[in-house]
Please model this.
Amino acid sequence: MDVLSDVIALMRTGRPTSALVRWHAPWGQRFPAVPGSAGFQVVLSGSCLLATASEPVRLNAGDVLFLPHGHGYTLLGEPSAEPAEPRWEPDREPALLVRDTVGEPGAGPVTVTLCGGYRIEAEHAHPLLRELPEVLHLPGGQPGAAEAVALLAREAQEPGLGTDTLLPALLDVLLLYVLRAHVGGVSGPGGAAGEAGRTGWAAALVDPAVGAALAAIHAEPDRPWTVASLGARAGLSRAAFARRFHERVGQPPLAYLTWWRMTTAARLLRTTDTPLSVLAARSGYTSEYSFAHAFKRTYGIPPGRYRGGRRDEETT
Model:
């Protein structure tokens, strides 16, 4: 498995909520901050403006916004529009897709957007997400993303058999393209490439040596990795690899390995009935005892209680 795929798997719980909205000019809308979530906007047709502290950023059909930290933002149909206060409660009942219309049909232009959000499990979120800027803007027409937007538009506006499965899958695909563009330095304010795409985790993923080590950790967390063996996978000496990994990732290789093992184990405890003996082996531990000790050191409670607590949450 590659790291970006794992970021998507870790970042959200359940299905995304979304709303297909037809905006009839003139219009403006404030979207509230929703802690513990990541939001998105896909412009399916028409255009609008993202209000920023400097000057508005124009969004055209096919453009995608991703807001990884759940911060509030404002969209405007035109620069002079007065934004309305939030119309949807952040804690409303989750819905895969709701439909809404804003304004009265008339002579003004119409903009159609698909907006919504993912719930984020903060304790399991990958460090890459924490490094992302407040807003990622992927301009329309990007290879792959454009096709995903077209499919989303069709499924959202003309749902059919299997739409409940297709919509979340297509949103995941689109999010992968947004993150891939950011890592490659393509996305940024107004869609401009910049150095923000080449620092921290974004730099780590495109670094051939560090990227190879990360791919190895994610693919085989059960292997008895050492700094030397990871360095060999990266094609560097032990010392050179350790220094480069720490510079890019922000922590030593074995610290990240332990974090990934425990995070993967916690996800499996939450979502499966996998026996602890199997989880221990998958996490690279030779016994349940050593695994349980490492898990408790990370999460503060033994894995059995962690699993029980998650089940209690699901039944309340």
